[in-house]
Amino acid sequence: MPPLTACHRRLPSSPPPIPARLRGFTLIELMVTIALAAILMSVAAPSMTKMIGANRVQTEVSSFVNDLQFARSEAIKEGQPVTACPSSNGTSCLAANTWQAGWIVFSDPNGNATVDTNEDVLRWRPLLKGGDTFVAAPTTAAVTFNREGFTSSLGTSLVTFKLHTADNVAKSTRCVAVSIGGRLATQAAGEGSCT
Prior knowledge:
Layout: H1 27-78, E1 82-86, E2 103-107, E3 121-125, E4 133-137, E5 143-145, E6 158-164, E7 174-179, E8 184-188
């Protein structure tokens, strides 16, 4: 009998094994993977929520500090009072200690902490997100900077604006201390006047 050539070889009796890279997951492997992913997510989700809240508060405090610094510099530049006050509509002051509703910065030549007919709104920040609260202690419904850059409306040497998340997590709390000299200091919970 002549030797078998490559094209005449006999087929093996059993199919060759499937390479490992072509195999899929078994149902049990898939269920175990899903269970592990669910456990990891349930552990990580609360921490992620707190981190997002803390970052949001930090951004909101930075916006407030920037706007107060802007008000102070505009008062010095214009040579007349400039006021920041809570505002929900961007055109008038709320006359309340509810800074979470948003705030405006406006030229206030007469220094009455009220937006009058010929006074321009220079900046407006809308309502804070996530149910955060932002209040001043002692109660303050406006911060007016005079032409020297000092605060003329505080009635005390220091006012602390306290911002915290709706869940009131102490680590997320941030404060802005405003002195009668116009100095601004950002503080974390437990620092300075941030209690």
